[in-house]
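Sample log: C-phycoerythrin class 1 subunit beta.
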Amino acid sequence: MLDAFSRAVVTADSKTAAIGGADLAGLRNFIAEGNKRLDAVNAIASNASCCVSDAIAGMICENTGLIQAGGNCYPNRRMAACLRDGEIILRYVSYALLSGDASVLDDRCLNGLKETYIALGVPLQSAARAVGIMKAICVAHINGTNTPAMAGNKFRKMETPQGDCSALSAEAASYFDRVIAALS
């Protein structure tokens, strides 16, 4: 796993040059935006259970056959496995967002995920749809656009980062897109 600093060192080392110019500017920006990054990860981690359960519920609402006898979320142990996998994926996305690098997500979560799901008979389209719903939920939490009208009695007001979080939400969305692409 590489963080922004390690990546800058590896890049400079591969060029046999000192760190400078654009690399230093990128590191300065990474540090300046550090509190926003931490707040974004906190927004995801603090709402992980709700994000995952809402994503799985949304997936099931779109395909009710998943919870009927013979469906992939029936019986309860399969539903529990689905929720567990959603939590694991979300955790690795939050690690990637914290470090600013997708290598931990790729190496420890996505490497072989599709093949494993195929071997277990997990419907890839449904799994990808659940990840897409998680993406929308997490981006709303990062941007602070979650509202009581959308969340109902489960609404939790989070401290939102000051300033524009569009770059962080786009970065988080790109990590979810990596998961969806790995399942496709």
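Observation: Residues 5 and 27 are 7 Å apart (CA to CA).
Observation: The two ends are 24 Å apart (CA to CA).
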